[in-house]
Amino acid sequence: MLPIFLALFIASFSLGIAVLILSILSFMRSGRLLFRQFIVFFCAPLLFILHDILRLYEKAFAGVFGGAFPFIGMVLTAAGNGLLGYMLPVIVFRIVKREITRPRFAVHVIGAAVLVAIGVLDDLLPAPVLPVVNSLALECIQVYAMIILFLNFNRIENPAVRSFVRVGLVFNSVMIVLALSQLVVKSLPTAPSILREYRLAEVVWYIGADTLLLIYGLRYLFNTEVKLARSLPEHFVQKYGISPRECEIVSMIVQGYGNRKIGETLFISSLTVKNHVYHIYQKTGATNKIQLINLINSPE
User: Fewer CB within 10 A of the end CB, N or C, for the chain?
Assistant: First the structure.
């Protein structure tokens, strides 16, 4: 079974790299802070998966790291725990458009510090209870994030984001139950060896989450409903200093899209669209769509 699980973790790591690349491309396209924050956050599960790959490799080839594995594992686990503990609440509050107050910020920093400490102890000390504590701590921070999303679900304006959050809540709920079930079952004397020795729920969680992120990420990145910035004349873009995001919005305005449809397509709120439209008209001096089209079609 060891080669199979090693292959599964390597496959999940490869999917994770694909998600990271997709996130970087999405950030380059939109410039949205949320994508940049997600890129930083997503390094956490990649570190966890890498830790599991090295652990399985060490198990398959005993002594291959020359006794350095506990230190390597400590660094990977501590860094992953810290990123997850701090960045996940930040991203969740941004999605639901809630301000992170100073007390909340302090709680998030303390939570991240506790997770880092647990991650350090988990790999350095031989106590069998520490891996269980680490798993429970990570699941607690995820449950906290899910509660915030659930309680503030109606504040999410974009239909695509609402769809992703809805699917994510259901998926994570199921996986948390499975992960807790494995923790309980593997402690039983009659538990199958596969559940005691391998993190079955974990690898299923990674592969499932990566697949969902790839589906929704590709849907955003390769949205073909809009003819994007390259359809605008270069002289128009340079003359009025139109940004890449404004180019997308101008392209949609010309095609007859309303603010709501623009927001749904670009995964931004209607208020954000209105602000962009206001700045576009300020830059160009146009007062309506017809004047804007005339400026685009103007030879100079």
Answer: C
Question: Which residue reads 């004349």 in tokens?
Answer: 233
Q: Which residue has the tokens 């974009």?
A: 158
pLDDT digits 0-9 by tens, 238-297: 889 988 788 888 888 887 888 888 887 777 778 888 999 999 999 999 988 888 888 888
The domain that holds 237 is classified in CATH as: 1.10.10.10
Query: H or E stretch including 110?
Result: helix 102-124
Torsion of CA 255, 261, 266, 267, to 10 degrees: 180
Chain position carrying tokens 């305005």: 253
Query: What's the distance, Cα to Cα, between the start and end of the chain in Å?
Result: 68
Q: How far apart are CA 141 and CA 139, in angstroms?
A: 5
The rounded distance, in Å, linking the Cα atoms of 13 and 11 is 5
Percentages (nearest 5) of helix, strand, coil residues in the chain = 80, 0, 20
Distances, alpha carbon 136 to alpha carbons 22, 56, 141, in Å: 30, 21, 9
Residue 147 predicted with pLDDT over 90: yes
